[in-house]
Amino acid sequence: MKITEIRVIVSSPGRNFVTVKVITDEGLYGIGDATVNGRELAVVSYLEEHVIPCLIGRDPMQIEDIWQYLYRGCYWRRGPITMAAISGIDIALWDIKAKAANMPLYQLLGGASRSKIMCYAHAQGRSIDEVVEAVMAKKEDGYVAIRAQSGVPGFEGIYGIGSSKGEKNSRARIKNLPKEEVWSTEKYLPHIPKVFEKLRDVVGWDTHLLHDAHHRLTSIEAARLGKDLEPYRLFWLEDPVPAENPENYRLIRKHTTTPIALGEIFNTIWDARQLMEEQLIDYIRTTSVHAGGVTGLRRIFDFASVYGIRTACHGPSDVSPVAMGANLHIDLWVPNFGIQEFSGYREATHEVFPHAWSRDGGYLHPGEAIGHGVDIDEDLAAKYPYKRGYLPVNRLQDGTLWHW
Ligand code: CS2
Ligand code: MG
Predict the structure, then answer these.
(1) Which residue among 212, 286, 313 is best mutated to probe the pocket of ligand 1, counting the most ligand atoms within 8 A of its Cβ?
(2) pLDDT tens digits for 5-24?
(3) DSSP state for residue 234 in the 8-state scheme
(4) Which CATH code for domain 109-368?
(5) CA-239 nearest atom, ligand 1
(6) How many separate helices (H) and strands (E) can be counted in the chain?
(7) What pTM, to 2 d.p., does this model score?
């Protein structure tokens, strides 16, 4: 079998997605996701100018060699753009291999280790009452695990969500540039335990509750928050501190038993190595589209299993239904599975990406279609052209640029 053509399809059915289609001389094709939210066209150019010409005529069955060729072979290794490009190709190649083997991808990986995949939904509100209402709505929809995010009193919007409501006349809105938000850790820290106190009162103890600090704290602040949240037994506290210095997590670990999840922006096993070796985290959040596809993710998750760290693939709406499909096949197989994030998609996104995966209450399943079971309707995708879009930028009250 030979690769004859690779298409990069950019569409915006609700938000931007970069999709890779690898076509072979035997009529089989595979679909991959290469989306990096807010930097989409950098990956398109990387693929079209630098990756695709090297792959035409190659055997698509040589997934590992192609991965190494694109990783080691380019000299400039790692980084989100390189790794998303590798991920897009890799996911498509695993799709082709599973189709050629006439089996769903999870079978090729080693078969199912469970019958269903626990996922968590997103719930948020500006006030505590709104958060409670949103969490209850997800619970009624069948979810058994829910991430709760709350607005901080005195501040507009809900942090870490990325909506541009209320920004109608701003320069950002008019020029389609990043929205700017304002942040105060001092106001956030005492507020969040109150949110979870109320949530436990109303929601009870049989629902897993999660919270995402979105890299906004220092280690000592995160240690304080983890301690203050202990009475409410969170499933996890996510991304408390940026992880450029993994040793920052030692201090958090010394002070709190609240479980820690990390890694949605990691793109290789080396980003997570020290955190896993020192057991500074409980859940690893890498995802197929950003961490080197099925090949990269499998390697990270196997390494995590050595240390009893469980998996928790990143899965918001900017991780496309294609990467979600790949994640779900890995989730069904991986022995050290923890949970899968699932924030859902708009109707237009479902239509552009027909998929075999499905949700039943609080659980997902990849389906039994051969390959990873997700396709792209290219004619429909063409009706949703790319629109420049950014994640927001965050500043402290005095104007200092802060982590979003
Ligand atoms: C978030 C993401 O899902 C999460 O946990 O942190 O929504 C994140 O902000 C986006 O994926 C960024 O593109
Ligand atoms: Mg997150």
Answers:
(1) 212
(2) 999 999 999 999 999 999 99
(3) -
(4) 3.20.20.120
(5) 6
(6) 15, 16
(7) 0.96
Average pLDDT score over the chain: 96
Annotated catalytic, 120? no
Q: What pLDDT score does 155 carry?
A: 84
Q: For residue 156, what pLDDT is reported?
A: 76
Angle (CA) 384 386 388, round 5°:
140
> For the chain, what percent of residues have pLDDT higher than 70?
96
Ligand closest to Cα of 404 equals 1
E strand map for 313-399? 340-341, 358-360, 363-365, 393-396
Residue 386 annotated to the active site: no
Helix (H, G, I), strand (E, B) or coil at 29: strand
Ligand 1 binding pocket, CB closer than 6 Å: 37, 212, 214, 264, 314, 316, 318, 341, 391
Tokens of 30: 């595979």
Q: Say whether pLDDT at 209 is over 60.
A: yes
CATH architecture of 3-103: 2-Layer Sandwich (3.30)
Question: Which regions of the chain carry the CATH code 3.30.390.10?
Answer: 3-103
